[in-house]
Amino acid sequence: MTLPQTPRTPVSQKVSTELERVVRRWRQLPLDHALSYAGQVRALAQSLADQVAAATGAPLAEVPDHGPATLMDQLTVLVFDASAAGQEGEALEADLASLRRELR
Question: What share of the chain is helix, strand, coil (3-state, %, to 5)?
Fold first, then answer.
């Protein structure tokens, strides 16, 4: 019997764990706190988008502002994209950890 293969992810375990912690913390924030941190999250997401564009030769594009409810989805996608483009590393893990510590 052959088991189906699970899709491999380019995201390292350390980055994945830190991203999960950020998402979990974000979900615990009251809306007014989330709104006050939204700019920091958007800045990290935009930085990742810019890194992916530079690494892949794609044109720069602004990450759209769809409000705090979608920020973690956007961040998750951009972490995946950055990892797939070879932009992941200790810096990304540190950026996510720093963000998580700031979310109060």
Answer: 70, 0, 30
- Report CA dihedral (56, 80, 63, 98) to the nearest 10 degrees: -120
Grade residue 22 by pLDDT with cuts at 50, 70 and 90: very high
d(CA 89, CA 103): 22
At 96 the three-state DSSP class reads helix
Query: Which residue is associated with the tokens 């293969």?
Result: 5
Indicate the pTM of the whole model: 0.89
Cα–Cα distance, 16 to 68 (Å, whole number) = 21
pLDDT band at 60 (very low <50, low <70, confident <90, very high): very high
Residue 91: alpha-carbon gap to chain centroid: 12
